[in-house]
Design brief:
CATH class: Alpha Beta
Radius of gyration: 18 Å
Number of helices: 13
CATH architecture: Alpha-Beta Complex
Number of domains: 1
Helix content: 25-40%
Shape: globular
CATH superfamily: Glycosyl transferase family 29
Strand order of the largest sheet: 7-1-6-5-4-8-11
Order of helices and strands: EEEHHHEHEHEHHHEHHEEEHHHE
Bound molecules: cytidine-5'-monophosphate
Largest sheet: 7 strands, mixed
Strand content: 15-25%
Distance between the termini: 29 Å
């Protein structure tokens, strides 16, 4: 489960397992912790950009939890659910930047380019303080996974103060005006289906990475999306995050998440050049509203 915050601070909730049939298809037996149903029919690595874009448009519309869905009912939740939709809160967006947390952003000098977008999404604990030359300053949305929420390891000092029991509810009390949305489980499992449909091997039955979910969110909200250091540039490095000294290649190529296959898929729908990837770590994607399917 992931949560989306408008601007500078973060939040989400525990992930209901994938039970039954999110996409409408029942193919194969549920497997793994989340009970994902593996797709066994129709996998292909040769679909065109247009076919993949139309699959994303049809199968992965942005869906957030509404009051009354699953466990989200009662007074506390009533107070914490925003009255406006995410689209209404943000308004129309032409150009958007997705800033992964990859170590390869260090020394990129991409900050001014990233900030020139109408909206910028960042992930989990990624801070801009001290790194604005490379990652920019602007944060329009922060997408946070439940692990970060439950550990309270967000970049907000105020959020850290809420650490303890029910950090989510406590945080919402501190920031009742901050629009906070919880992505519906169907969103990331439907995204998982599109990744599996376009990968011949079985992919791990775990949700797509937070970064991949953020790309899909922004493709739903924006006309054009620039993604930074999801496909690694010449600066590729084992440094996991630009903001901390931890080295592991699995952050870039994945182990828990089907990241290798996420990245292959994004490479297939990239409208930018190979030089942009090599020099800038930049992928350019059409927003889903721009595709006629
Ligand atoms: O590690 P974390 O999930 O907070 O990072 C945010 C996202 O950035 C990841 O989910 C992944 O999509 C992307 N990332 C990456 N390469 C890295 C680190 C993060 O592509 N080295």
């Amino acid at each position: 489960q992931s949560g989306l915050y408008r601007h500078s601070t973060d939040q989400p909730v525990a992930c209901p397992p994938r039970t039954g049939n999110v996409s409408g298809d029942v193919r194969g037996k549920p497997s793994g912790y989340f009970g994902v149903r593996r797709m066994v029919e129709g996998r292909s690595e040769n679909r065109t950009r247009k076919e993949i874009m139309c699959a994303l448009k049809k199968q992965v519309p942005l869906s957030v939890m509404k009051l009354g869905d699953g466990p989200f009912s009662g007074d506390e939740w009533e107070r914490s659910f925003p009255s406006k939709s995410l689209e209404e809160t943000l308004g129309p967006l032409r150009s958007c930047a997705v800033v992964t947390s990859a170590g390869a952003l260090l020394n990129s000098g991409l900050g001014p380019e990233i900030d020139s977008h109408d909206a910028v999404i960042r992930f989990n604990s990624a801070t801009t303080t001290g790194y604005s030359q490379d990652v920019g300053n602007k944060t329009t949305i922060r997408l946070v996974n439940s692990k970060v929420e439950l550990s309270g390891s967000s970049p907000s000092d105020l959020y850290r103060e809420t650490k303890g029991t029910s950090p989510h509810i406590q945080y919402r009390k501190l920031f009742p005006e901050q629009p906070f949305y919880i992505l519906g489980p169907a969103f990331h499992w439907n995204l998982w289906d599109v990744i599996q449909d376009n990968s011949v091997p079985n992919i791990v039955p775990n949700p797509p990475s937070t970064g991949m979910q953020g790309i899909a969110v922004m493709m739903n909200l924006c006309e054009k999306v620039s993604v930074y250091e999801f496909l690694p540039s010449h600066r590729r490095t084992s440094l996991c995050h630009y903001y901390e000294k931890h080295h592991s290649w699995s952050c870039t190529v994945g182990s828990y998440h089907p990241m290798k296959f996420e990245k292959l898929l994004i490479g297939r729908i990239n409208q930018g050049s190979d030089e942009d990837i090599a020099a800038l770590g930049k992928v350019t994607l059409n927003g889903l509203s721009q595709e006629k399917c």
